[in-house]
Amino acid sequence: MASTYTPISTYTFASDGTGGAQVSFTSIPSSYTDLILIAYTADTYVGNNPNQLWRVNNDAGNNYSHTRIYGDSTNFAGSARQSGVSYSYLAKPAEGSNFANGILHFVNYSNTTTYKTMIGRQSGGYTLTDMGDVSAWVHLWQSTAAINSITLFPQTNFKAGSTFTLYGVKSA
């Protein structure tokens, strides 16, 4: 089955150095099968373990869970799980310097009879042992509502040059 990616919206924080506190994609049409969010991000946070998070439909309730596996080039590997939290992860870039690549696949996002599943991948950026160089995630949003908005927010601010593109996927 062939599919096509259609760009819905792109946002880039200007190179003027200001960055920003969040990105929101709103009024997402329900005419696609899936959504793909591709991010190239860095955080201005200074310290260990910066987090870049997301929510859908402005839901800040404890309706999210995620499981991740991760590893790095020095044979470090692990897994972790959280449930009943008010967010999920996009990427964990290094402390205000390196950019990380993140992809989120929102599966069957407009279905109104099932909970929403998202599959995520991240590479680059964060290299401390709690996360590794590469990660794979499975996310669950415990709601049957169709997803019509996605908000991404960093630990402190997204660094200038951080770019986010949302695509709709149509099956042929």
Short summary:
The protein has strands at 3-12, 23-25, 34-41, 52-56, 64-71, 77-85, 88-91, 100-107, 116-123, 134-141, 150-154, 163-171. With 172 residues, it is mainly β. It has an 8-stranded antiparallel sheet, with no helix packed on it.
Write up this protein.
With 172 residues, the chain is mostly beta strands. The chain has one domain (3-171): Jelly Rolls, CATH 2.60.120. The protein contains no helices and twelve strands. It has an eight-stranded antiparallel beta sheet with strand order 1-12-3-8-9-10-5-6, with no helix packed on it. A four-stranded antiparallel beta sheet has the order 2-11-4-7, with no helix packed on it. It is globular and about 40 Å long. Residues 127-131 have low confidence and may be disordered.
Name the descriptors:
single chain, 172 residues, mainly beta, Jelly Rolls, 12 strands, 0% helix
List the helices and strands and how they pair.
Blueprint: E1 3-12, E2 23-25, E3 34-41, E4 52-56, E5 64-71, E6 77-85, E7 88-91, E8 100-107, E9 116-123, E10 134-141, E11 150-154, E12 163-171
